[in-house]
Design brief:
alpha/beta, 10-stranded mixed β-sheet, two-stranded antiparallel sheet, 12 helices, 12 strands, about 20% strand
Length: about 350
């Protein structure tokens, strides 16, 4: 009997060890950000479907500042890859946050990713874009735009021909490789790691202060899990559900909100603009909500150095909502301050 108990204890101990965080890959982006704690991007063998953005020397940072608030993040287009938000998430982490983003660790070229994004959806309100590496991106010329429209026309015609040959394919829904519940699954993983004595995250996380954040389609995934009482605020980047149904979320999902909401939208040139306006009007009168609009279109400023002005706004919101830094609220509650910091932005708010 004693031998059997010992064997059981050894098996349990081994299984706990396997469950503990196991950093296998890491990189530093843009010298670790501009915040007080240099950040790093981490791949973990015990959580292979996600990437963690966190301060370097995590234990030392916690000893200095205390436990760190948590962010769970969902990607634009609901992709299973977070490279396009790498500059922003790295910057946010440098201010003392641990962010877990959907998508496995990837060392792809961030600038190459964004070059394609900007060329395909350039905001007409901007004359040029300066990327984080100093590269200047200009809008498409009239000839380039005409050629792209012709190519898109040909692709539509070909798709129609293919659909006629196979009606079943025409009815198939586009495949998504991620789902909303992944945000709660990684939050569960972080919760387990915070409680496991052998984990890198042991007693490092402030799980009473959790944000869910998503860009574009990722915002629909955020709305899909916003009912969870652990989520204390939501950040909707270039996103809104409007009258759509996406990733299981609809306008009815807005009724499940219980936390302050922040919408960061790229102005009328943002394809999410109209939906975000509808969300703002429909959110219940007991839910605080702020919406800021820039002129950056659907791509925000994520390609700019340290995530640009969108990263600055996100840090201020999180500092206010998750760390109680009331002074950071000025950007969201004071129109004169907003005009001083970001002259081209417009802001509205309700229920404060």
């Amino acid at each position: 009997m004693i031998k059997k108990l010992l064997m059981t204890a050894m098996i349990v101990a081994a299984s706990v060890g396997v469950m503990n965080a196991q950093t296998t890959q890491k990189q530093v982006v843009e010298e670790g950000g501009t915040g007080p704690f240099k950040s790093e991007v981490v791949g973990d063998a015990s959580c292979p479907g996600f990437t963690v953005y966190r301060p370097q020397n995590l234990k030392a940072v916690v000893a200095r500042q205390g436990v760190l608030p948590v962010i769970v993040y969902a990607n634009g287009a609901c992709f299973n890859n977070n490279v396009e938000m790498r500059l922003l998430l790295s910057e946010v982490a440098s201010y003392g946050y641990v962010a877990a983003a959907i998508g496995p660790y990837d060392e792809a070229d961030v600038m190459a990713q964004w070059r394609g994004v900007l060329k395909s959806a350039y905001p007409e309100t901007k004359g040029e874009v300066i990327m984080a590496n100093g590269e200047k991106i200009l809008p498409l010329t009239a000839e380039e735009r005409q050629a792209r429209e012709e190519q898109q026309r040909m692709e539509r015609e070909q798709a129609q021909k293919n659909a006629k040959k196979n009606k079943k394919k025409q009815l198939e829904a586009p495949p998504f490789r991620t789902y909303p519940k992944m945000l709660l699954e990684v939050l569960d993983w972080l919760t387990d790691q915070n409680a496991a004595s052998g984990s890198e995250y042991y007693h490092c996380l402030d799980l009473d202060h959790v944000a869910a954040m998503g860009q574009s389609c990722g915002g629909a995934q955020v709305l899909g899990v916003a009912h969870d009482p652990r989520i204390k605020t939501c950040v909707m980047l270039n996103s809104g559900i409007g009258d759509m149904e996406m990733m299981g979320s609809t306008k009815e999902s807005l009724k499940n909100l219980h936390q302050p909401m922040f919408y960061m939208i790229g102005g009328p040139g943002d394809i999410a603009y109209a939906n975000a306006q509808k969300d703002y009007e429909r959110i219940a009168d007991n839910i605080p909500v702020v919406m800021l609009n820039s002129k950056d279109g659907h791509s925000g400023t994520y390609y700019e150095k340290h995530g640009g002005n969108y990263a600055k706004a996100v840090v201020k919101w999180l500092d206010w909502q998750l760390k109680g830094k009331v002074g950071q609220a000025a950007l969201f509650l004071d129109d004169e301050y907003l005009k001083m910091k970001f002259p081209d932005w417009q802001g509205v708010r309700k229920n404060f």
